[in-house]
């Protein structure tokens, strides 16, 4: 252990030393109850109202991001695979941009279904988890994005809720 946890009459926080590795310092949570969007190509679009900010207390701490993303693949008139990828986009910290994507390429997928006719549809809550290293003590903002490939994948909170949690973890 790198420090001693205990009470001190001279400290309002009650902490002497440093929290041990793996301790959760802060938690932020959002559940999207409104919003809709549609993706129909490999360009990532934002999932509305799935954005959270957190300010790390140390530049070496990690941020654990967990997401349940509800998506809906609509009907199509041909026999084909329909797919979507997910991404976590960060603003602030060591870099700004996509810090995680669920597929190995723009034409790969992490959520897919094979539609044989134009009446088939699929809805699913898709779990995402990523341990990020923002390397900052300034505010960091995360947002969830998704894409499609030549057809429509919908994000609509009237069909199902999506949620995101951020947890700052000591190193």
Determine the strand fraction and express it as a percent band.
over 45%
Number of helical segments?
0
Which stretches are poorly predicted, pLDDT < 50 over at least 5 residues? none
Q: What's the Cα radius of gyration? A: 20 Å
What fraction, in percent, of the residue positions are helical?
under 10%
Shape verdict: elongated
Spell out the helices and strands N to C. EEEEEEEEEEEE
**What distance separates the N and C termini?**
11 Å
Quick tags:
single chain; 171 residues; mainly beta; six-stranded antiparallel β-sheet; four-stranded antiparallel β-sheet; elongated
What would your notes on this structure say?
The protein is mainly β. 0% of the residues lie in helices and 50% in strands. It is built from no helices and 12 strands. The model has no long low-confidence stretch (mean pLDDT 83).
SSE layout:
Blueprint: E1 24-32, E2 36-39, E3 45-54, E4 62-73, E5 80-84, E6 86-91, E7 97-101, E8 111-115, E9 122-132, E10 140-146, E11 153-156, E12 162-169
Antiparallel strand pairs: 1-12, 2-11, 3-10, 4-9, 4-11, 4-12, 5-8, 6-7, 6-10
A few lines on this structure:
By secondary structure, the protein is mainly beta. Helix content is 0%, strand content 50%.
């Amino acid at each position: 252990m790198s420090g001693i946890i205990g009470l001190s009459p001279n400290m309002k926080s009650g902490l002497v030393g440093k929290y041990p590795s793996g301790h959760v310092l802060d938690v932020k949570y959002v559940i999207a109850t409104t919003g809709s969007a549609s993706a129909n190509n490999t360009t990532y679009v934002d999932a509305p109202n799935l954005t959270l900010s957190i300010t790390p207390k140390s530049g070496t701490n990690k941020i654990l991001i967990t997401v349940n993303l509800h998506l809906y693949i609509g009907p199509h008139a041909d026999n084909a695979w329909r797919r979507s990828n997910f991404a976590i986009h960060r603003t602030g910290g060591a870099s700004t941009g996509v810090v995680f994507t669920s597929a190995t390429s723009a034409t790969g997928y992490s959520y897919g279904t094979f539609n044989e006719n134009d009446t088939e549809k699929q809805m699913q809550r898709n779990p995402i988890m990523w341990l990020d290293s923002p390397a900052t003590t300034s505010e960091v903002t995360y947002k969830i994005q998704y894409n499609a490939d030549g057809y429509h994948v919908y994000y609509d909170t009237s069909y199902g809720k999506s949620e995101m949690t951020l947890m700052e973890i000591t190193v």
